[in-house]
Specification:
The protein is α/β, with parallel strands linked by helices. Helices cover about 40% and strands about 20% of the residues. The protein folds into two domains: about 1-50, no CATH class; about 60-245, Ribosomal Protein S5, domain 2, CATH 3.30.230. Strands 1-2-4-3 form a four-stranded mixed β-sheet. The chain has a three-stranded parallel β-sheet with strand order 5-8-9, sandwiched between helices.
Length: about 260
């Protein structure tokens, strides 16, 4: 139940609030024993809900990605890693792009690059080539009061746009991070540990990372590496394959085995 308390009742870089919530649980359990109501208390989900009340932080991924046009990105904030929902919608227009959500210049440029890549690959992606000419695209990152910037949301933006234009939902169990270039390459990013732990805390099952960040996986806790599945992508096409089709064609490469010396 420790993970339940962490996921739904605390959100901070340190452990102060976690200690307080655990203290609340133990004090209420001790009070019941002292009053003679019970001889012992089992701390299960029902006990946590009864003692701590309604959850303060809900698991949003499944709800937020229930419609096409929403992708789950991963970011580093002032309180550590967090999930970042990238929303895309379209409406009749002439192919213009609108961006909202307190995004810095880097993320705005990422959105422009993501849209340009998608529009230049409509045929390969099986999209209607006339859709973008007849519609404007609006990309929004909620929690607008929190400024957001950094070169790591490009793949999530591209995925949200393709999801919108194709009508295919992004898997609710997939989170992603990585920058995208106009040629469709996925570039290395920072903060892998914080982002992956945020994905685990949010209940995600698969994390898409740039192939160049493969070495960062060794720095993750063993439990995290075991619980999550990682997709290492070199291109946006590999990201889309995992996010929209649930396939993981780009798994981490196995460690290289030392070659035996060859005699002559």
């Amino acid at each position: 139940m420790l993970r339940l308390v962490i996921r739904e009742y605390t959100r901070e870089a340190g452990l102060r609030n976690l200690e307080r919530r655990l203290g609340d649980l133990l004090r209420k359990a001790a009070t019941r024993v002292a009053r003679g109501e019970v001889e012992s208390v089992k701390i299960d989900e029902a006990t946590v809900r009864d003692s701590l009340g309604p959850r303060r932080f809900a698991g949003e991924a499944r709800k937020r990605t229930s419609d096409p046009g929403v992708a789950t990105g991963l970011a580093v904030t002032q309180v550590g890693g967090d999930v970042l929902f990238i929303e895309a919608t379209g409406y009749p227009g002439k192919g213009k792009l609108q961006i909202t959500g307190q995004l810095g210049e880097v993320m705005q440029e990422s959105a422009q690059a993501a849209l340009s890549w998608v529009r230049s690959h409509t045929q390969e992606l099986g999209l209607d080539s006339g859709w973008f000419a007849a519609n404007d695209v609006h990309i929004h990152v909620p929690a607008g009061a929190v400024p957001k910037d950094g070169p790591s949301a490009g793949v999530a933006m591209a995925t949200a746009i393709v999801s919108l234009a194709s009508g295919r939902k992004v898997s609710a169990e997939v989170g992603m991070t990585g920058e995208v270039t106009l040629t469709g390459q996925v570039l290395q990013i920072g903060g892998v540990r914080e982002k992956v732990l945020a994905a685990q805390r949010a209940g995600l099952k698969t994390v898409i990372l740039p192939r160049e960040n493969e070495a960062d996986l060794s720095e993750l806790p063993e439990e995290t590496r075991t619980e999550l599945e990682f997709v290492l992508a070199d291109t946006v096409e590999e990201v889309l394959e995992a996010a929209l089709n649930g396939k993981t064609a780009a798994r981490p490469r196995p460690a290289a085995e030392p070659q035996a010396a060859q005699g002559r």
